[in-house]
Each structure stands twice: as structure tokens, then as C-alpha cells.
Write a structure and sequence with these properties.
With 339 residues, the protein is α/β, with parallel strands linked by helices. It has one domain: TIM Barrel, CATH 3.20.20.70. 32% of the residues lie in helices and 16% in strands. It contains eleven helices and twelve strands. β10, α8 and β11 form a beta-alpha-beta unit. α1 runs parallel beside α2, α3 runs parallel beside α6 and α7 packs across α8. The longest helix has 20 residues. The radius of gyration is 19 Å and the shape is globular.
């Protein structure tokens, strides 16, 4: 199966095309430190054969965490626990990524921040503080420092979280960004914050390590982000040496989205065909045959699994049980069945 074939991107060899999507575990300490749960959780998926593991959204600021039990990378003391996760995953063959995130107007804070003072849901979130240009510069700097810590913690890839209604996404979408300065209005202006974050991160992140961005391709709402805008954004990211694009959708505001196995793959496929950047598809790819069809059919380069890997840390070993080209951990070989 092509799903289990290796791929090399920017000098990094990944043993297969299965990606563990970043999923919040809500097991961090109150001040954002990793717990033993994280070491077990991520190491077990590496043992289970996942090619690329992306550690859950890690807050680049305290107010940017997505909950009071989410990981942080905004203090130097956070690095040690995150490094242990990376070391364990890599020791069992996985390429280790980490998603750097800022929740923005959906952040865990009494005073969340955003491009404009528009709440995503008045019943759940307060009206956010509109960031001034100087404050925007401070947030960009926080991303730069986070990239340095991720580098020093030994991660193979960082991913900038630009999806699901969080800070970068809220700058990109015209539904949440109604600014009239250089960060709002035209698609180019709304893209400015993302490009400034990218440039700052690249000052710290080695060029020979992978750099990824996750985007919500569309908002599924009238007047929201369109595929044309997202393709243009990805073209810019490609010009600025982003290695991998991860395509999701929605999350900005409540929307009616038809969910079914593979429901977001067509978005990743459209971006891949338009731009040609290595692409991660996500969205209900739980069954091996479906994940294989996405990769073998050239619709995306990787299939990302979320809930499927929560249910089964050994999803890859189970799916590849009869594929002798896929190595099992030596300690588990006795449990491998033959036809």
C-alpha cells in the first residue's frame, strides 16, 4: 500500500504517510507543563507505527492556550517536558512535529485578543480585545520565541496553527477581521499577520527542518474564506519555503457542515493540484482503504488521523498486518498474524 511507503521532504525521511493529527489531551498542568500522560500517549503512537506525529496545539502565550489544561511553550520551563515527548517519539521511529498555536478570540482568557472586537459566540466567549499594531508585533515575537524553544527541544517539524477560528485564521477571514489598517481589508492585508509570523519563526527555525502551516480552507459561511483566497495564501507560503500544508476547514463560527468519511479531502486535493505543495488531508479517514485511496489516488501526500488514533494507538500495525514491508516492533512480532 502506498499509505505505508516512505517519503522524503526537505531532507527529512518519514517512514509512511500516516499523520497523527494534533488533538488536545487536556492533561497538562494548570500552568501548561507536560505530564506523564503526554509521554505515554505520544510514545505509544510512535510504537504503533505512525509516520509523522504532530503534538497537540501548544500555546505560544498563556492567553493563547485553548483550555486551562492545554500545553504551553511560553516559558523556558516548558521546554523540558516537550523535549521528553520528542525524544520518546523519535526513539520509536516517528518524525516529531509540534503545533504552535494561539487561540486568539477563542483562547482561555478573561481578555482574549483578536484582529477585531468580534466574539465568535456571545454565549461562550467575551468580546475580544482588538490588537493594536504594536501588540501584534508582540504576538509575532512570542511565536518567534516559541519556535526557538521547539528547535531546542529537538522537534523535526513545527506547524503554525492557522485554522479553526484561532488567531491566525481570525486575521485571514473577512468575517472576523474588519480592520481598516494594513492588517485588514484586502486578502493581501488579511494575510499580513500570517506572513509576519512565518518570517519571525524562520529566523529561529533551521531551514533543514520541516515547516508546516495548517489552514481552514473555507469557512462554510457566506462572505467567509473562499478556496480562491486559500489557494493564493498557499502560493505565498510556498514562495516563502513552507514545506507541508495541512488543509482543514471551518471553526470560525457555527456552520452547517456535512460530515462523512473523507468530507474534507476535496479541499486538500484542490490545494495540492493548484499549488503542488506536499499536502496533508484530514477528516474521517478512519478506514485504511479510504486513507489508502487518498494517498494512492494522488489526492494528498498524507492521511491524517485524529479520533481513529485515540481509539487505536496501533492503527498502523493493524492496517499493515499482512504487509511485510512494514516493520513491527521486535517485541510485538509474536503477535503478528500471517494469512
Amino acid at each position: 500500500m502506498k499509505l505505508f511507503s516512505p517519503i522524503t521532504i526537505n531532507q527529512t525521511k518519514i517512514r509512511n504517510r500516516v499523520v497523527m493529527a494534533p488533538m488536545c489531551q487536556y492533561q497538562a498542568t494548570a500552568d501548561g507543563h507536560a505530564a506523564p500522560w503526554h509521554h505515554i500517549h505520544y510514545a505509544s503512537r510512535a510504537v504503533g507505527g505512525v509516520g509523522l506525529i504532530i503534538v497537540e496545539a501548544v500555546g505560544i502565550e498563556a492567553r493563547g492556550r485553548l483550555s486551562g489544561r492545554c500545553l504551553g511553550i511560553y516559558e523556558e520551563g516548558h521546554r523540558e517536558g516537550l523535549e521528553q515527548i520528542a525524544v520518546l517519539g523519535r526513539s520509536h521511529g516517528a518524525v516529531m512535529g509540534i503545533q504552535l498555536s494561539h487561540g486568539g478570540r477563542k483562547g482561555y482568557s478573561d481578555r482574549p485578543v483578536a484582529p477585531s472586537a468580534i466574539t465568535p459566540d456571545p454565549n461562550r466567549f467575551p468580546v475580544p480585545h482588538k490588537l493594536s499594531p504594536a501588540e501584534i508585533g508582540g504576538v509575532v515575537e512570542a511565536w518567534k520565541v516559541a519556535a526557538r524553544r521547539a528547535r531546542d527541544a529537538g522537534y523535526d517539524m513545527i506547524q503554525l496553527h492557522g485554522a479553526h477560528g484561532y488567531l491566525i485564521h481570525s486575521f485571514l477571514s473577512p468575517l472576523s477581521n474588519v480592520r481598516e489598517d494594513s492588517y485588514g481589508g484586502t486578502p493581501e492585508n488579511r494575510r499580513r499577520f500570517l506572513m509576519e509570523v512565518l518570517a519571525a519563526v524562520q529566523e529561529e527555525w533551521p531551514r533543514d527542518r520541516l515547516l508546516s502551516v495548517r489552514l481552514s480552507a473555507v469557512d462554510h459561511l457566506e462572505g467567509g474564506l473562499t478556496m480562491a483566497e486559500t489557494k493564493a495564501t498557499v502560493e505565498e507560503l510556498k514562495k516563502h519555503n513552507v514545506d507541508v500544508i495541512d488543509i482543514s476547514s471551518g471553526g470560525l463560527l457555527q456552520a452547517n457542515i456535512a460530515v462523512y468519511p473523507g468530507y474534507q479531502v476535496h479541499l486538500a486535493e484542490a490545494v495540492k493540484k493548484a499549488v503542488g505543495l506536499p499536502t496533508i488531508a484530514v477528516g474521517g479517514l478512519d478506514e485504511p482503504a479510504l486513507a489508502e485511496s487518498v494517498v494512492a489516488g494522488g489526492r494528498a501526500d498524507f492521511a491524517a488521523l485524529g479520533r481513529a488514533l485515540l481509539r487505536d494507538p496501533h492503527w498502523v500495525l493493524r492496517a499493515a498486518e499482512y504487509d511485510q514491508s512494514v516493520a513491527w516492533p521486535e517485541s510485538y512480532e509474536r503477535g503478528r498474524r500471517s494469512r
